[in-house]
Design brief:
single chain, alpha/beta, six-stranded mixed sheet, 26 helices
């Protein structure tokens, strides 16, 4: 039905698509068929509970921004410039399909690399690019930039992604937020934390390298050096064993390797951990004692402490704590990283997984820089990448090793099509730019990491200008390339309907009416009281890293401080964390005026003693660097970090920095064991007054 025929104004249900575990259920004020007003969290959803982050609440700034792309563009100037002219959709698609066909005919289909990530979390408009990839035989993508490092650590012990229901935090007496900043990045966590504090007097503890807004709101902040969380976790378990808080009955029934772990941890004292982590031994002792005494103790794992070369080992160590303490036995106890292992969505139609060609190479998205410059070992075994379609991501700013990324995107022999909502820095390197819809202008289906609701929504408003959805573009290209696939002739709603039904869920119309479906398994399964989905059926204290991933050889199995991080040296004495800025989400919202005003400018947080020793003060220009390059920022003198830690909240566009290169110029594209990924928070730097 045309949206002009619907009643307006109205409050319309939707789902936030952005790369956040919450996937918030929304209520959107539709003023007319083309215009939205305020966006709120759905009050009747028991996870979202009427709350949404400020970024999305003011989404009208983004969807109605005057700089939104509305027509296809053809580059007429150098790559990286703003020199484009408008062209018709037919010409744009002919150019893209033609370039892909010529490249594949010359070097084989693997020379084409469709590249994407999580600019939308909708399964149809995020993952549908894999349909184009699989039908045409183009190079695969290891989509590892966000979740792979933490997933490897979680499944090494638990066997499957899952854990305590996030809503149980409201029933906890101790909540430990480890390596996350939900006030800025996943606000709904705080709804349930606040309820537990008000109704149960729960204590809220945050483990993080700096005093984030979440740490500011906590009862206790454990300020750990970057990359040393595993040492703190080991010391906590040392105390649990030493002081009789280990749940021997639980260990015997539900875990594997407890005796070896206890012997191993005998020397991992709080004093040992203090020397490594900078966290006072007395604070570790007190936290371990409190954790040991509290049955309803919930550890909520974030992504931050995993984005390190030893990230999976750190996650495994933290995930072992509730197994030692037997906290899985108790409601409001246990741990959670994500729940998306509870969904059973069959994406065969969306991704054409039945068309995957055996032996097709898979390229590492986190190493897009070395891939495009020909320095990656996998790409060197076959043809270079000479054609790309990029959707849902902005690697020119967000990928590690920016200098190589920009060098690769600037190649004259690389044909690049970018499908985007704004002319991002990646889009400025494109030969053809296609205008994309926002989530409000198409239908989609969502799974979540932070809650167990399967969500479906229809479009809320008409797309402006000539904007087209990812799904539409993928099918249009497949038709021009002479391909055949059942999804090619389906609308988004039809594809969602078919996917839901083959997955055993209600169809599109029913799900739009219901808005969401709780797919939680039983409480016993969430708490692994029916067993862990591992080889032994128990929590594995000795991780088999080689079984988890191809880079796991030589990594010790038992929880420990695995010292493979980018260690500080006399030449690079500071460890840098590039944590998310509160008003940005990767580079989304960097174009909206309120977010830019609130973030002001790129800054580096520096301890007062460090700033004094280096001779600069608050607001001074500071240069950070390492062997990869350097950037200039303004100092924010701040006692909420350790003296050897610096924090740069990101991701700012490169253009926001005075020399035109952003913070990811300093981050490495090295692959963490055992499965690869990105080590954004594992960077040693030097620093001086600029």
């Amino acid at each position: 039905m045309p949206l002009d025929a619907l009643a307006s104004p109205a409050i319309v249900p939707s789902v936030c698509p952005h790369d956040c575990p919450s996937a918030c259920a929304l209520e959107v004020e539709r003023i007319d068929a083309h215009t939205i007003g305020r966006v709120r969290g759905a009050a009747d959803n028991d996870y979202t509970a009427g709350v949404v982050c400020a970024k999305v609440a003011r989404y009208a700034e983004r969807v109605h921004h005057p700089d939104r792309l509305k027509r296809p563009l053809l580059r007429v100037g150098p790559k990286g410039s703003d020199q484009f002219r408008e062209i018709p959709w037919g010409e744009a698609l002919d150019r893209v399909a033609g370039a892909f066909a010529v490249a594949a005919a010359r070097l084989g289909p693997e020379t084409v690399w469709p590249y994407y990530f999580a600019g939308t979390m909708g399964l149809v408009n995020r993952d549908g690019i894999n349909r184009l990839r699989n039908v045409m035989g183009y190079s695969g993508q290891d989509a590892n930039i966000c979740t792979t490092v933490v997933k490897a650590g979680w499944i090494a012990g638990s066997g499957k992604v899952g854990g305590s229901d996030p809503r149980e935090m409201a029933e906890s007496d101790l909540i430990v937020m480890w390596g996350g900043n939900p006030v800025s990045t996943q606000v709904n966590v705080m709804t349930h934390v606040t309820k537990a504090r008000k109704e149960r007097g729960a204590r809220f503890v945050v483990v993080d390298p700096y005093r984030t807004p979440t740490a500011e709101a906590a009862d206790e902040h454990v300020m750990v050096r970057p990359g040393t969380d595993g040492a703190v976790a080991c010391a906590i378990m040392h105390v649990l064993f030493r002081d009789g808080y280990a749940d021997r009955e639980y260990l015997a029934r539900y875990t594997e390797g407890a005796a070896a772990l206890e012997a191993h941890l005998a020397s991992r004292t709080p004093e040992w951990a203090e020397a490594i982590s900078g966290v006072p031994a007395a604070q570790i002792e007190a936290l371990a004692q409190r954790y040991g005494r509290t049955d309803r103790a919930f550890i909520r794992l974030g992504y931050g402490f995993a984005r390190s070369r030893n990230g999976p080992m750190q996650v495994h160590a933290v995930a072992a704590i509730p197994a030692v303490g037997g906290k899985w036995r108790h409601r409001g106890g246990g741990a959670l990283w994500k729940v998306d292992g509870y969904y059973t969505v069959d994406k065969t139609l969306i991704e054409a997984t039945d068309r995957v060609r055996p032996g097709t190479r898979v390229l590492d998205m986190s190493r897009i820089g070395p891939v495009l410059t020909g320095e990656d070992s996998v790409v060197r075994q076959g043809p270079p990448v000479t054609a790309m379609l990029i959707q849902n991501t902005n690697p020119a700013a967000v990928a590690p090793d920016s200098h190589r990324v920009l060098k690769g995107l600037s190649r004259d022999d690389l044909f690049l099509c970018v499908h985007e909502q704004f002319l991002t820095e990646t889009a400025r390197h494109a030969d053809v730019v296609l205008p994309a819809t926002t989530f409000l202008e198409h239908a989609d289906i969502y799974t979540a990491g932070g809650h167990p609701h399967l969500e479906v929504h229809d479009r809320v408003i008409e797309a402006p200008g000539e904007c087209r959805s990812n799904h539409w573009v993928q099918n249009a290209l497949l038709r021009r390339l002479g391909a055949e696939h059942p999804a090619m002739d389906m609308t988004e709603a039809e594809l969602i309907d078919a996917t839901l039904k083959r997955s055993g869920y209600p169809g599109f119309d029913e799900m739009v009416g219901r808005k969401w479906l709780d797919v939680s398994p039983s409480w016993e399964e969430q708490h692994f009281l029916t067993g862990f989905p591992t080889r032994s059926g128990r929590f594995e204290f000795a991780a088999d890293w080689e079984a988890v991933g191809p880079l796991g050889k030589g990594i010790p199995g038992l929880p420990d401080h695995v010292d493979i991080i980018d260690r500080a040296t006399p030449e690079k004495p500071y460890r840098m964390v590039t944590a998310p800025a509160r008003n940005y989400l990767n580079t989304s919202f960097t174009e909206t005026p309120t977010s830019r005003k609130r973030e002001a400018r790129p800054t580096v947080m520096v301890h007062p003693d460090t700033a004094s020793a280096l001779g600069f003060g608050d607001g001074d220009r500071v240069r950070l660097g390492n062997e990869q390059g350097s950037v200039v920022l303004h100092a924010k003198v701040f006692d909420g970090v350790q003296p050897t830690t610096v924090v740069v909240e990101s991701v700012w566009p490169n253009a926001a920095f005075e020399e035109g290169i952003g913070i990811n110029a300093l981050t490495s594209a090295d692959s963490p064991p055992p499965s690869g990924g990105a080590a954004f928070h594992d960077t040693a730097v030097w620093m001086r007054k600029a």
